Amino acid sequence: MNEFELIARLTKNLPTNEAVVAGAGDDCAVLDLGIPEKLVLFKTDAVVEGVHFIRETPPEKIGRKALARCLSDIAAMAGTPTAALVTIGLPKDFDAEFVAKIYDGLNAVAKKHGVAVAGGETTTNPGGLLISIALLGTVARGKPVLRSGAKAGDAIFVTGELGGSLAGKHLDFEPRLAEARWLAEHFTLHAMMDVSDGLAGDLRHIVNASKVGAVLLKTALPVARAAKVRAREDAAKPAVLAALTDGEDFELLFTVAGRDAVKLLDGWKKKFPDIKLSCIGKIVAGEGIELRDKSGSQKLNVNGYVHFA
Q: Which of 103, 228, 241, 286 is the most exposed place for a label (fewest CB within 10 A)?
């Protein structure tokens, strides 16, 4: 049983109440707690030694990544983060100075984005270091962008470049909070999420939730230089495959009406001249994802990163 099969089983009969606007199945839970003009976003995520980082990773970068992952999910809903709780599980032989530096990195990214670190929990974890973040945010009523709104005819966009994240990006990425809010303010976003498990897997989440299909243009995929370098060293994983499957890029993947595509690209270049934005394909009626190049189309069968696979 892989990660998504387990999630489907565990979330099938979750208790709910009238406060839940959107629950399991999106980047954040969306809650209506009666706040005028605002809905609450609620997110939890964890980083685990040996999975998301190694013992030799600089501690400041471990802390930064732990919170930045959650910030990226708030961005995926076009929201604003507000406050976090931090749970840290430590091995018995932990180094207090190392742990303090983890918090230095976490606190720095929190301050940058106006997030209060309001407390948390410490515990032991014999298996190694673990950090779990619970993050609250807000979004204007009627404005959260879910995965389920993609429509046939939409253009598919992705920010930045994809692939090769293990070369360092997975520790140093910038959550696209300002970019997402600008997009939501100036355009009608139909669906959006962040690319955490790889484009192939994450786009599949959007098309499945929206009950549509997609066509990707191979030549339009923004392949990162790190993926191309890695491909030269390891011919078994071409750069395009890395861009589709590597994961931990933490870029925005979203759809808008096709008629808005040119205006969006023009506006983006003026607002964010240093951040790449690529139109990589379109949403179509049907199901599944096709990858198209000059030789034709083929069904995209690869997936991104999947726990327990």
A: 286
Segment 212-229 shows an average pLDDT of 97
Separation of alpha carbons 164 and 156, rounded Å: 21
Statement: residue 306 has pLDDT above 80: no
As a three-state string, the secondary structure of 196-232 is: CCCHHHHHHHHHHHHCCEEEEEHHHCCECHHHHHHHH
pLDDT in tens, 65-91: 999 999 999 999 999 999 999 999 999
The CA distance from 285 to 289, in Å, is: 11
Beta-strand runs (E) in the chain: 20-22, 29-31, 38-48, 80-90, 116-124, 130-140, 154-159, 189-194, 213-217, 252-257, 277-284, 288-293, 296-299
CA 223: distance to chain centroid? 17
Instruction: Tell me the C-alpha distance between 220 and 200, whole Å.
Output: 14
Residues 256 and 265 sit within 8 Å (Cβ to Cβ)? no
The pTM assigned to this predicted structure is: 0.95
Whether 58 shows a pLDDT value over 80: the answer reads yes
The Cα–Cα gap between 137 and 145 comes to 14
What residues does 296 pair with on adjacent strands? 293
Answer for the pair 67, 82: CB distance below 8 angstroms, yes or no.
Answer: no
